């Protein structure tokens, strides 16, 4: 019982770190273009994260039952796998946050589950990881880049003769809606991952016998990620909002609109856990490339891609070591 409580608590702490690590990147475009004041943006994002967390459970089921095979018969060992995965992901979150790199908490958690599962000799469903994690891991950012580039070109063509100041004011107002849509999508995507790992711990501990998500799990996960969002993650906001490309309101609107569309599609249609951060970053690069490629800070984008690629491996290695150590202590 005590180990289950500890694991659930750690999952909620992970949700808090996910909030300031990932959700801050989701609002960076609106803050950078001054469409929203930072504190207002954080309050709005926290609220929309909470609402988004209650809109679906498909991703939670994917994380909770289709990545690593855990049952009530596994008992303490199954709980240790979840705990090690969470701690491994949290360690990597802290490292990337310190350096201001918008890596993916989602990929860190999934890498942690796979690494801890391997270390504990559990069945890891690589076919599911391949189809619902690795493939979307590449497709979602690529789609974000291409669609944002095309949308930005269309906006530039439609508003070519419009008075610039007036057009920018309108896009600033529109960003209130597009930023809220991204925040809602982030809650829909990332909060479900926290729900999923809590369910794994409950199943392993014998306190839950199916893949359904109890209401208290939904509400506590939503509260944790919303609180973390409101706390803010200014290092990552600065990286996404200003260090990749100097955005104007039209570009911010285009990047947010595309990002939100991808988040909803992958969650509702495929139940695939993708990275909000990487989708937003790719969309920002896309609008930058559509406007002036030379202004895109490709070195910064390259560093982000490097962190993106190494995240599942790094968190998986940390989690595997932690799983071995924890198994000796329990």
TrEMBL record:
tRNA processing recorded as keyword: no
Organism superkingdom: Bacteria
Compartment(s) where it occurs, according to its Swiss-Prot or TrEMBL record: Membrane
Main location: membrane
Membrane topology of the entry: Multi-pass membrane protein
Keyword Transcription belongs to the record: no
Keyword terms of this UniProt record: Membrane, Transmembrane, Transmembrane helix, Transport
Segments traversing the membrane: 42-64, 76-99, 128-151, 301-326
InterPro entries according to UniProt: Phos_transporter
The protein's name in its UniProt record: PiT family inorganic phosphate transporter
